[in-house]
Amino acid sequence: MAQYIVIALATSTAPHFEGCxxxxxxxxxxxxxxxVFGPASKEDCEKWITENCGGENNNGGNKAENVNIGExxxxxxxxxxxxxxxxHDFFEYLPHIITGFIILIxxxxxxxxxxxxxxxxxxxxxxxxxxxxxxxLVAIVTIAIxxxxxxxxxxxxxxxxxxxxxxxxxxxxxLIGVLGTIIGFYFGSAxxxxxxxxxxxxxxxxxxxxxxxxxxxxxxxxxxGTVITAGVSGGKPPYKYKITFDPxxxxxxxGDTTNGVIQAEVKKPAAxxxxxxxxxxxxxxxxxxxxxxxxxxxKVKKFVVKKQ
Length: 308
Known about the structure:
By secondary structure, this protein is an alpha+beta fold. The protein folds into 3 domains: 75 residues, no CATH class; 99 residues; 105 residues, Immunoglobulin-like. 34% of the residues lie in helices and 26% in strands. The chain contains 6 helices and 16 strands. Strands 9, 11, 12, 14, 15 and 16 form a 6-stranded mixed sheet that branches. Strands 2-1-3 form a 3-stranded antiparallel sheet. Strands 8-10-13 form a 3-stranded antiparallel sheet, with no helix packed on it. The protein is rod-shaped, with a radius of gyration of 47 Å.
């Protein structure tokens, strides 16, 4: 034999329960109601409703007259024990609407930031961009929770509102602490060193440099010499240069240049090369400000002086 229970609005209390309904034991109880009697037979449940349920919003009996559902007036409804009456208030949904709106704004903001960013901080590890994004997210979430708590305090009539509001305040307090920590780190870690606007190309132009360009011939014979060509950049022209050889059987070559181009012809000396010998060289340059740069012999191309 089926057993029944009586449910009533969770906000109502004894001895006058409101919104009483009889349902079969084991059926789902709607969120706005709670069990107040049973399990028992249907007759016992009806008797209990007659004695304990009252008020014009009671729909627990077998018959109701002049029941207002929304804006529609329904008269003489028989057996309405399974009829559910829902009254929806706009303010009940306002926190959810605001939450969805804020999520939409945050998602759009992140998408725009990523799209317009010239640096992909997800792959290139841009710490500054990542810190800015994290600060933005935590700030938006904190503001959203504060707004939802405020609107809930104004619009909610639920019986467990105090417990939920207290839990929300705890979460908000934690987020405010996190937000303060992030903002403090974000601004506190900023580099306070004065920024000096240095043009790297201009700085490089002030550095005296020697660049080996070419060697016209890899072999020097009695009939054919070779031409060493190098370039000078930076510093202040005119430049003085000196080329020394190893071994020093070849006489050093000196000269001046105003355009930064060094060209020196090397010929085989009359004596000293009874056998083929590998020769290397070193270039030393001094500019008008007496700054010196040396191109060492291990950075240039060697040539061979033939015995014949």
